[in-house]
Amino acid sequence: MSIIIKSTRIKTKSGPGNIVRHLLDKPEENEDIQIIQGDRERMREAFDKARTKTKVPQYALRHWILSSTEKMTIEQVMQSVQKLAGEFKFNPEDATIIMHQKERDGEEISNQHYHITVPEVLENGRVMTNQKNYAKHEKICRELEHTFGFSHIVGKHNRAVEYATKDLNPEVSEVAKQLANAPLPSARYSAKKYQEAKRSDIDIKRLTKLAKEQCTDINSFEKIKARLDSLGLHIQEGTHKRKNGSLTPVIATQDGFVLGSVGGILKRNAQEVSDISEALQMHREGMQEEQDIKPVEASKIVLATPTLTETATAPQKDHSGMRGVMAMTWEEKLNQEMQRLEQIYNAPHPELIEESAMTKAERAKNSIKEQVKEMNNLKEQYSKLKEERNELLKNKSMFNNNKKKSDAVDEKMQEMFEKIARLSAYMAMLILHKLGLGGPPNEQMIFTDLERHEILKNYKEHELTNVMTKQKELREKGIYKVAEIATNKINDQIEEWKNRPEAEEAIKKYGVIHRLINFIKDEDNELTAEQKEKLIELSKSGKIEEAHEFQTDINLERYRRGMQEEAENEQEQDYEPEQEQEHKPKPKKSMSLGM
After folding, report:
1. Nearest-angstrom CA–CA distance, 305 and 542
2. pTM reported for the whole predicted model
3. Looking at residue 149, what DSSP letter applies?
4. In a 3-state reduction of DSSP, which class is residue 247?
């Protein structure tokens, strides 16, 4: 493989929180994070830009992932962005480019990959096209590989690349033609499946790699099943039908999380997958009754919260009374911890408690109701302020220019005398205050009654203008549009609150405890008394991480032991013919002569 480009589209209603946190705020998942161009604000602005459109688009941000076998320079990365910009008609300066560095499974793959985000709403106001994006990605990859001198990869759309570049770039077209005739590689799992596994605290990369390594060169269904069992995995029927009508066999964890198909993970051809499917069908028919009962009972044990009745009957499986009491105690303690973690995850937003309890539809209805209420309040304020202003203007008429000139002069003189008197009183009070004989004077006392009247009138007119402006904005945008914007803002805040580090840590720990309870209570696990006692003791002490590490050690030890037993069995099988030849040389010799 060489250059691979993948893309996802981030929905407008989901908000920028998740994508920003995924790209910039997870140093624990990456050895290094570097921003080459743009910033987090640019990504947030893409969502604001989408929401301001009259018809809000479904998607606000396009997210590309650029990876390669060979290590790329910054110049090559920027050239790749230019290619994407030319194909999808966006301005490359609008792109945010982030480099992630992390350890890869294979040494042949570069440990660096790049995330490129661009607003879906382009500079011309149109939404970026998503037509034939897979073919466009492969076309860009083949052209870049040719330009950079990289190796090439077999893809699904190389035939389309061949025709698209036939006239413009014949050399790339010829390469695509050869690749189109090559068989497609099978992927172990999809990007979506990888993200689902991460959220479930499952290391899908490690498990699929171990499963493939452990089952290499083994064709027996029973042996494959035994090897997978040592890893806590099993084969079951999937949901997709094959050409012959049978269901595709898949590999899943004990909790039922499907890692992928048997063919994709173990790299088996169609005939081998058919053989495994038939063996699975025979095994399932032979064990139908047992398989139908066990999962139901297990799910009831794991999901139900312990009650006094269940606690009293649970120790019947264990004939030692003391051990039954201990099992009740550790299980109750772990369930209490799970309830505490669930409360953390489901805690409402501190500033949006009522909204957190609502569905998104209920929030939208509530926002519309609030906007209608605000509009009615604005109308009342408008009418009241208008009456107050008219009253002020009416009282002002005695000072207007229709008065005689002499009256106007008298009024000005009277106001001047009042001003002088007020200033004198203010100065006197200020002097007394400086001498410590009184409090500080009020600065507003220097204003005359006429000045106070003018100030009040101007203030009311200014307040009225603000109300009228707000009314105009509401009329222009529309109540429903304003309500939609308010609802989206609340949804983003609640979504960011749910995805806060504390909540993510709680749900991750919740999953660990859930699997730990299942592991301890599973009778088929064949735990030794010491192992079970240590797991229970760690659980009772609240040392969940240590218990989880010990559980992992047990599984790894079983895996190593299974590998060792398998190797010993193979050695014994190789040794038995030699024993026969040593004890019975004559029959062996006669058999060889007969042949």
Report:
1. 18
2. 0.38
3. T
4. strand
Distance separating alpha carbons of residues 122 and 119, to the nearest angstrom: 7
Q: Using DSSP bridges, classify how beta strands 32-37 and 3-11 pair: parallel, antiparallel or unpaired.
A: unpaired
Q: Which of 5-14, 130-139, 286-295, 357-366 has the lowest mean pLDDT?
A: 286-295
Provide the β-strand partners of residue 65.
6, 115
Length reported for the chain: 595
End-to-end CA distance of the chain: 50
Quote the tokens at residue 89: 């008609």
- Give the 3-state secondary structure of residue 537: helix
Written as six digits, the tokens of 246 are: 């049978």
User: In the predicted model, is pLDDT for residue 225 greater than 70?
Assistant: yes
Q: Extract the tokens encoding 324.
A: 């039954």
Which two three-digit tokens encode residue 516? 């730990």
Residue among 356, 334, 347 at smallest CA distance from 510: 334
Give the Cβ contact number of residue 258 at 10 Å.
Answer: 16
Per-residue pLDDT at 163: 54
Residue 29 to residue 100: CA distance in whole angstroms: 9
Other residues' Cβ atoms within 10 Å of the Cβ of residue 251:
25
Are the CB atoms for 324 and 318 separated by under 8 Å?
Answer: yes
Between CA 333 and CA 526 the distance in angstroms is 23
User: Is 208 within 8 Å of 260 (Cβ atoms)?
Assistant: yes
Contact between residue 544 and residue 514 where contact means Cβ atoms under 8 Å apart: no
Q: How many C-beta neighbours within 10 Å does residue 315 have?
A: 17
Q: Which residues are paired to 211 by β-bridges?
A: none
Q: Report all structural domains of the chain as residue ranges with CATH numbers, in order of start.
A: 3-180 (3.30.930.30), 200-286 (no CATH), 303-344+504-581 (no CATH), 360-498 (no CATH)
Write the CA distances from 434 to 427, 443, 479, 559, integer angstroms.
11, 15, 57, 90
